[in-house]
Amino acid sequence: MRGFSDAKGGEVSGAPTPSIGDRNAAALRRPRSRTLKALNQLYFVTILTVEALNTSREVVRNADREKLTLEVPRIGGGTLKIEKRRTKVAKALKLEASRDAYAKALIVGVAHTEDYLTSTLRQVLTWVPEKLLLNSEGLKVDKSVKLEEVIKSKSRASFIAGAIEKRILELSYGSPSDFFDYTKDVLGIQLDKSLAASFFELKATRDLLVHAGGIINQKYLDKAGSAARGQIGHEIEIDVDYFESAIRTLKAVTSSIYSQCVPLYREKGDGSMLARPSTRK
Fold first, then answer.
1. CB-based contacts of 53: which residues, under 8 Å, 6+ apart?
2. Is pTM, for the whole model, over 0.70?
């Protein structure tokens, strides 16, 4: 029968060979599906975690002891037992459930979406390396080539792969808007203005949480632009409503980019899929 394997594990003669268009679509669909799955899982795990935290808080509040014995990692290995007042533990659980759990999940969610953008950009540049020569508002391209890089490259493909990674590294040190400007120019896509504004604000909030303890500063206001929230010196607000909206925005960005890229790149390149680096040890 067509498409089935024979006893030796080989494909039976006459089985249809996927077209370049089908392979390209699959190559673009794989990171999209992976990202949406990760975002969905991040959402429901966070919601369940918050419920568990609230349950634990009630248990602690109703404990019959004033102090609780807890274990924490010891610097030299093993664990160390410490005592904490019941009221302080309950307060820590309340803070985690009301804000910190959502803030930590937001950081992960933005990272998932940035990884999707990078994966799609890398794939398209591999198929259409001429796009490495494009300038954009986000990046003025250096078109010079070092002779040493050419000589050390094993092939044209390896040289191009190195140039792509170098470009992505350059972008990672720029502003979120510059990175996205370059990405949309290279991919040839557009995002709805309100969606783009929400996405930039999410990235700015993530940077604020990671680098400034969540305290609003001028850099956040500059990055977030018209979608900025709060005032300088105040703690950025993160709650369940904001987190739910953030997941919707990240999924919408991912889906919008994918739906625009498929018709543009179905017939580009050779239909090859990039291997995703393994994170397992």
1. 93, 96, 97, 101
2. yes
Query: Which amino acid type is present at position 163?
Result: A
Instruction: Give the Cα separation of 82 and 91 in Å (integer).
Output: 17
Three-class DSSP labels, the chain: CCCCECCCCCECCCCCCCCHHHHHHHHHHHHHHHHHHHHHHHHHHHHHHHHHHHHHHHHHHCCCCCEEEEEEECCCCCEEEEEEEHHHHHHHHHHHHHHHHHHHHHHHHHHHHHHHHHHHHHHHHHHCHHHHHCCECCECCCCCCCHHHHHHCCCHHHHHHHHHHHHHHHHHCCCHHHHHHHHHHHHCCCCCHHHHHHHHHHHHHHHHHHHCCCECCHHHHHHHHHHCCCCCCCECCCCHHHHHHHHHHHHHHHHHHHHHHHHHHCCCCCCCCCCCCCCCC
In a domain, 155, yes or no: yes
Q: What is the pLDDT of residue 138?
A: 55
Domain that holds residue 102: 20-265
Number of domains in the chain: 1
The pLDDT of residue 18: 77
Residue 81 exposed, middle or buried by CB count within 10 Å (0-12, 13-18, 19+) = exposed
**Is pLDDT of 6 > 60?**
no
The reply to whether 143 falls in a domain is yes
Token pair 């089908």: residue: 22
pLDDT at 115: 94
Q: In this model, does residue 277 exceed pLDDT 70? A: no
Within a domain: residue 281?
no
Q: Answer yes or no: is 87 within a domain.
A: yes
